C-alpha cells in the first residue's frame, strides 16, 4: 500500500492566501542562546526551539532493530521530549495517574538511569487520553534542569538530581490537562498557563528567577484553554516573548511582562509553537487553521497592519510547523496532510498525504536535518521528505511503537521516547 497519496483530486484542501502589505520591524530571528547550548539539545525543539538540527552524521534510516545503539525502559508514563546536556539525558514522567511526578536522568552513552527525583504534589490534574501528566518538555542552562508539572508547579533540579527549588502558583483546571513547556531567557524562565480559572489563580504568563524560583513578573490573561510553548524572538531593537494562544497571538516585553502587541485570528484551541523566518513569525491554530504570518513589532492590536498573509487550510492541530529554506512545512494531523508554503508569500507549493488519513494522527513535531525533513506520526512511522519545492518521499522508518514525543538530536545520534522506551539511534 502506498504511504503517500497525491491530493490533486481532493477538493477543498487547496490553500488560498490573503496578502497585506506591511512595514518591517527590522531584523527578526530567534533570540540568541549561550554558545555552549548550541552543542546540545537544551529545550523543546532544540537549542533554537525551531526543530533545526546543526551538524552532520545523522542516519536517515532506522527501525526498532536497525541502527539502534541502545534501548531502555522508561518508568512511569509521559509524553515530554528528551533534552540533552553533555552525557545526561533528561525526561519527566508520572505515576499513579499523575499523583506522583518526577524528573529522570539517563546516561547518554548507554541509557543507564542515573537518578530520579520526585516533585511535591497536591491533587491530580485531569488529562486528555492523548495527553499525560508529564507532557511538558524540560529545559536546561547547563547549571540546572527546569520543568513544568502543570498543576503541581514549576521545579528546578541540580544536575546531580537534588531538587533546587519548587514553586506552585495555584491549581490549574484545563479540560485536557497541561502541556506547555517552559522557555529560558537570560536569568529567567518563562511559562504561560491558560485554564478555566479558579478562585485563587487566573490564567497567566510569568517569569521565574532561575536561581531562586521567585516570580519576577506575572501577567494575568483572559484565555481559558491552551497547551502551547512560547518563543523569544529578537525583533529589531527589542526582544519579544511570543505567545500563540486562544483567539489571539500576544507579544510581551521579556523584562517586565507588559503587553506589546496582539493579533486576532487564531482559533479556540492552540497547541503549535510559533516558528520564525524571513522576518515573520508563523502561528498555527485549531484543527484546520488558520496559520498567520506576522511581522513583529508595533504596539496594540496590529491585526490590520502587521499580518503579512494568512492561510485557512493545511494548519496543524498538535505538531508545530518548521521553516527550511524558503518554505514553511506543516503536517495537518487531522488528515495526515503535508503542506508546503512559500514562507514569504503564503502561496501553496504542494500538498501530499503522509501515510493513512488519521484524526489526530501526528503529535511529534518535525525536525530538519540537512536537506531532509522528518515527520513522525503516532504509530512511530517517520516519513523522510526531501526538502524543496518538489515533493519526494525518500523512505518511511518504523519504530513499531507509539510515539507522541519529539526527538532530540546530538552528535550524530537521535534520541526517541516512545510510550514505554527510550532509544538511541545512529550509525553503529
Description:
This protein is 0% helix and 41% strand. The relative contact order is 0.17. The protein is mainly beta and 428 residues long. It is built from no helices and 37 strands. The two termini are 31 Å apart. The strands form eight sheets. Strands 3-18-19-20-21-25 form a six-stranded mixed beta sheet, with no helix packed on it. A five-stranded antiparallel beta sheet has the order 1-30-29-28-27, with no helix packed on it.
What's the layout of helices and strands?
Layout: E1 4-6, E2 18-19, E3 28-30, E4 52-53, E5 68-73, E6 83-85, E7 88-95, E8 100-107, E9 113-119, E10 139-140, E11 144-148, E12 154-158, E13 163-167, E14 183-185, E15 188-193, E16 204-209, E17 215-220, E18 231-235, E19 238-244, E20 248-252, E21 259-264, E22 275-277, E23 280-284, E24 291-294, E25 300-301, E26 307-311, E27 322-324, E28 327-332, E29 337-342, E30 348-354, E31 367-369, E32 372-376, E33 381-386, E34 393-398, E35 408-410, E36 413-417, E37 421-425
Parallel strand pairs: 4-31, 21-25
Antiparallel strand pairs: 1-30, 2-26, 3-18, 5-37, 6-7, 7-8, 8-9, 10-11, 11-12, 12-13, 14-15, 15-16, 16-17, 18-19, 19-20, 20-21, 22-23, 23-24, 24-26, 27-28, 28-29, 29-30, 31-32, 32-33, 33-34, 35-36, 36-37
Amino acid at each position: 500500500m502506498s504511504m503517500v497519496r497525491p491530493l490533486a483530486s481532493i477538493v477543498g484542501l487547496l490553500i488560498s492566501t490573503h496578502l497585506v502589505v506591511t512595514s518591517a520591524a527590522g531584523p527578526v530571528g530567534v533570540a540568541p542562546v549561550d554558545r555552549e547550548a548550541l552543542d546540545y539539545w537544551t529545550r523543546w525543539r532544540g537549542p533554537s526551539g525551531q526543530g533545526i538540527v546543526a551538524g552532520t552524521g545523522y542516519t536517515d534510516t532506522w527501525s526498532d532493530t536497525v541502527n539502534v545503539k541502545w534501548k531502555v525502559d522508561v518508568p512511569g508514563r509521559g509524553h515530554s521530549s528528551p533534552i540533552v546536556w553533555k552525557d545526561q539525558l533528561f525526561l519527566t514522567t508520572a505515576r499513579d495517574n499523575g499523583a506522583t511526578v518526577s524528573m529522570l536522568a539517563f546516561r547518554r552513552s548507554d541509557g543507564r538511569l542515573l537518578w530520579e527525583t520526585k516533585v511535591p504534589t497536591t491533587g491530580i490534574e485531569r488529562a486528555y487520553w492523548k495527553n499525560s501528566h508529564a507532557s511538558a518538555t524540560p529545559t536546561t542552562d547547563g547549571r540546572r534542569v527546569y520543568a513544568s508539572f502543570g498543576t503541581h508547579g514549576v521545579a528546578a533540579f541540580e544536575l546531580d538530581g537534588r531538587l533546587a527549588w519548587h514553586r506552585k502558583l495555584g491549581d490549574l483546571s484545563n479540560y485536557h490537562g497541561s502541556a506547555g513547556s517552559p522557555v529560558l531567557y537570560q536569568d529567567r524562565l518563562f511559562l504561560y498557563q491558560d485554564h478555566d480559572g479558579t478562585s485563587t489563580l487566573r490564567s497567566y504568563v510569568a517569569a521565574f528567577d532561575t536561581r531562586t524560583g521567585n516570580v519576577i513578573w506575572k501577567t494575568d490573561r483572559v484565555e481559558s484553554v491552551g497547551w502551547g510553548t512560547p518563543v523569544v524572538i529578537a525583533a529589531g531593537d527589542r526582544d519579544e516573548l511570543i505567545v500563540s494562544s486562544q483567539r489571539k497571538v500576544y507579544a510581551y516585553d521579556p523584562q517586565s511582562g507588559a503587553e506589546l502587541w496582539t493579533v486576532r485570528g487564531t482559533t479556540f484551541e492552540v497547541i503549535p509553537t510559533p516558528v520564525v523566518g524571513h522576518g515573520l513569525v508563523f502561528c498555527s491554530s485549531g484543527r484546520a487553521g488558520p496559520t498567520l504570518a506576522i511581522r513583529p513589532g508595533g504596539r496594540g492590536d496590529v491585526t490590520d497592519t502587521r499580518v503579512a498573509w494568512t492561510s485557512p487550510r493545511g494548519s496543524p492541530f498538535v505538531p508545530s510547523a518548521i521553516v527550511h529554506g524558503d518554505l514553511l512545512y506543516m503536517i495537518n494531523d487531522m488528515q495526515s496532510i503535508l503542506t508546503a508554503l512559500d514562507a514569504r508569500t503564503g502561496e501553496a507549493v504542494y500538498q501530499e498525504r503522509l501515510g493513512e488519513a488519521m484524526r489526530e494522527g501526528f503529535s511529534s513535531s518535525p525536525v530538519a536535518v540537512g536537506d531532509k525533513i522528518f515527520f513522525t506520526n503516532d504509530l512511530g512511522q517517520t516519513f523522510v521528505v526531501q526538502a524543496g519545492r518538489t515533493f519526494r518521499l525518500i523512505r518511511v522508518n518504523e519504530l513499531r511503537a507509539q510515539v507522541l514525543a519529539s526527538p532530540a538530536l546530538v552528535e550524530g545520534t537521535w534520541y526517541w521516547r516512545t510510550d514505554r522506551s527510550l532509544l538511541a539511534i545512529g550509525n553503529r
